[in-house]
Amino acid sequence: MPHFKFDHNNFTVLDLDRSLKFYEDALGLTEFARLETPSYIFVYLGDVYRSDHVLELQVIKNHKTPYSTGDNLSHLAFLVDDFKAAYEKHKKMNCIFREHTVAGLYWIKDPDGYIIEIVPKDWGQGFRY
Fold first, then answer.
1. What are the phi and psi torsion angles at 47 (to 5°)?
2. For the chain, what percentages of helix, strand and coil (3-state, to nearest 5) are there?
3. Of 6, 19, 121, which Cα lies nearest the Cα of 67?
4. Are 27 and 41 in contact (CB under 8 A)?
5. Alpha carbon 125 to chain centroid distance?
6. What strands, in cross-sheet order, belong to the sheet with 30-36?
7. Quick one: DSSP state of residue 9?
8. How many CA atoms lie within 13 A of 40 on its CB side?
9. Which of 71, 77, 95, 108 has the fewest CB atoms nearer than 10 Å to its CB?
10. How far apart are CA 4 and CA 104, in angstroms?
11. Other beta carbons within 10 Å of 34
12. pLDDT in tens, 92-116
């Protein structure tokens, strides 16, 4: 049986510059690679830890209307070492989408409506992967 390793998440975005600014300001992700074709642009973002997992932002060049992402909880998840500081930062950015105060985590939305879960670094230590 083959073994699979998680590689990346892909979000198709409408405004690449707006998305790049959001992901850098909100989560510290920066571009490390880009591929452009006549129809698409693919931009790859990574974190300061150089994790194996990356975010791929895709732009369809001739698409001009917002994408419908719905109100589901399909999401990326980020562990954060200073949860309070992250929360205050995202509150100031006005991008908090939903909070789960009992569980001690929250979700933000990017400019295209994609959902990102913010989890304290030590949350769920007993069962985390």
1. -95, 175
2. 20, 35, 45
3. 19
4. no
5. 22
6. 8-12, 54-60, 40-46, 30-36
7. E
8. 11
9. 71
10. 31
11. 11
12. 999 999 998 877 889 999 999 888 8
Are 101 and 108 within 8 A, CB to CB? no
Helices 83-93 and 16-27 meet at what angle, rounded to 10? 150
What is this structure's pTM?
0.75
Give the residue among 22, 103, 115 at the shortest CA–CA distance from 74: 115
Nearest by Cα to 33 from 45, 47, 15, 41: 45
Query: Would you place residue 129 in the very low, low, confident or very high pLDDT band (cuts 50, 70, 90)?
Result: very low
How many Å apart are CA 99 and CA 15, to the nearest integer? Answer: 27
